Amino acid sequence: MKEDNETETRSESKSFIESFIEADLKEGKNGGRIHTRFPPEPNGYLHIGHAKAICLNFGMARKYGGKCNLRFDDTNPVKEEIEYVDSIKEDIRWLGFDWEEREYYASDYFGKLFDFAVELIKKDLAYVDDQPADVISSQKGTPSQPGIESPFRKRTASENLNLFERMKQGEFDEGSRVLRAKIDMTSPNMHMRDPIIYRIIKSSHHRTGNTWIVYPMYDFAHGQSDYFEGVTHSLCTLEFEVHRPLYDWFIDQLKSDDYRPRQIEFNRLNLTYTMMSKRKLLELVREGNVSGWDDPRMPTLCGLRRRGYTPESIKRFVDLIGYTKVEAINDISLLEHAVREDLNLKAPRVLGVLNPLKVIIKNYPRDKVENVELVNNPEDESMGSRIVPFCNEVFIEQEDFMESPPNKFFRLAPGMEVRLKGAYIIKCEGFKKDEKTGNIEEVYCTYDPATRSGEHASEKKVKGTLHWVSARHAVDAEVRLYDRLFNHEDPSGQKDDDYRKFLNPASLKVLNGCKLEPSLKSAKRLEKFQFQRLGYFCVDYDSTESKLVFNRTVQLKDTWAKINK
Ligand code: ATP
Ligand code: MG
Predict the structure, then answer these.
(1) How does pLDDT run across 507-527, given as a tens digit for each residue?
(2) Which CATH number fits the domain that encloses residue 540?
(3) Residue from 41, 80, 229, 336 carrying the catalytic annotation
């Protein structure tokens, strides 16, 4: 199902999650405490889907005067790295959220979880299974067929205790034994069919080193971690709905007081032309299909940041799509709309030419330079204005000149007049063409001195206004233009699961020799601008004093309408 863009009003109405929380508050549950958590697994960089979960968890805590923990669900030492932990923290801070001193790790609870597993064994609610993983999974049955009990299910508690202890001591090989909860192999819920709760992994863990040889499964760690931390509302994505009875079963066995975290599920964020799985994003990085996790085409938060997205635009987008119980795929153009709206207010306008064509104004004095004053942002007077130099040679965009234009081409062509933004009206008197290639090399114009923009400009009107840059003052830049990384709406949802064949070969276009107005010489990393008529651009990390590099964040929706205003 594809959602349309008519979601403007949604942010004002209450989500079902807020209604649940408010009902709990009204009932006086948990003594009026609201405590949420964001629980990433540090096995990759955060993507925009995670932003949805972050905004929700931190947002609910903020709205209801509660707290939100950051908890790393680091139960798998093989895939987890400190690099990911650091990047996750940086990205959450960048979005504007703060977990204060509450930075937790599931690995902090390995001791407690082990003790709990021992307790389950003692109560005959867990057993060591010696069968290999594929046999265990073949005995699981199907949703319509009950599972088969393991031959090791009837082991005595003392035998299980002995084996589990020896698993912990490293006596057995990886994969040779697991600990399973003893629940019900005939349960209609597959997750209740004696799930594996501990496995042997002989890899070093990024925090606990070689202390542990048995590791809890995610499902055994997650719910209890929420419980240990006093989380009141465990907000997670819809796929965990079917795990909820299992989490509840574990909490029941903990023999807790009446407190338990309330799990509420919401729909994942999916975007058209995008895939979110960290595993697949890691493949893109490893296989060199992108330059890294922060490649501006990636849906990662660091990629979006480098592309020029602002935290406000991402939060606004998340607000627009809202939280529901129905899986959907959101249109990526809504995300682009959100960043455009935000940058429209914030980004100063500048002049830059991506594909330069030199225009020589023959009747303009060769040694003269005039300072043209241009407003930085017509949406915000307080952003002031700046001075841009004008002289007899300027660059315009190649596509703004045509030798034999069609009707209604309101740009430059032989005999036609256009205004150079903020400066004069010029008239095309001729051009130089390379007869071999057909390339236009120079255009010759005259200007009308009575038409300088400002209060005293003559009455003369022209239909087209072009952006330009003084050829003698321009600074050179490399500009990277981006298109969608995939040319399929749902690249990872296809039958054979090979998203690679949908990679868009034209997703990156690098332009060298772009010409920008001189004020951009001092532009700083990640600084954002609107290049008039061309879109929003942001200074890339590769940019240096001697070579400016810009990324295009997004194109302007309505280029002509804007410039002719
Ligand atoms: P992926 O499938 O991309 O690897 P994950 O769910 O395994 O993601 P986690 O690190 O476990 O990644 O996610 C942390 C939290 O973010 C979880 O609570 C999860 O529900 C939430 N989350 C992950 N992806 C999305 C998404 N696309 N939309 C909303 N929330 C998400
Ligand atoms: Mg996960």
Answers:
(1) 999 999 999 999 999 999 999
(2) 2.40.240.10
(3) 41
Residue 449 within any structural domain of the chain: yes
Q: What is the DSSP string of 198-252?
A: EEE--S-BTTTBTS-SEEE-HHHHHHHHHHHTT-SEEEEEGGGGGGHHHHHHHHH
Catalytic residue check, 278: yes
Higher pLDDT, 457 or 51: 51
Token pair of 343, please?
Answer: 């940058």
Based on the fold, state whether residues 125 and 26 are members of the same structural domain: yes
Residue 460: what pLDDT? 80
Domain presence at residue 506: yes
The residues, ordered by sequence, that sit 6+ positions from 435 with a Cβ below 8 Å of its Cβ are none
Q: Residue 212 domain-assigned? A: yes
Same domain flag for 419 and 511: no
Q: How far is the CA of 225 from the centre of ligand 1 (A)?
A: 17
Which pLDDT does position 455 carry in this prediction? 65
Mutate to test the pocket of ligand 1, among 36, 37, 46, 50 (most ligand atoms within 8 A of CB): 50
Q: Indicate whether 27 belongs to any domain.
A: yes
Mark whether 456 and 500 lie in a shared domain: no
CA of 501 to the centre of ligand 1 (A): 25
- Average pLDDT over the chain reads 94
Quote the ligand 2 centre to 77 CA distance (angstroms): 14
Neighbours of 267 (CB within 10 A): 17
Same domain, 62 and 193: yes
Residue of 237, 264, 275, 276 with the most ligand 1 atoms within 8 Å of its CB, for mutation: 237
pLDDT score recorded for residue 13:
79
Is the pTM for the entire model greater than 0.85? yes
In the prediction, which pLDDT does 454 show? 78
Dihedral of CA atoms 256, 259, 265, 266 in degrees, nearest 10, equals -150
3-state DSSP of 26-87: HHCHHHHCCEEEECCCCCCCCEHHHHHHHHHHHHHHHHCCCEEEEEECCCCCCCCCHHHHHH
Out of 451, 473, 495, a domain closes at 473
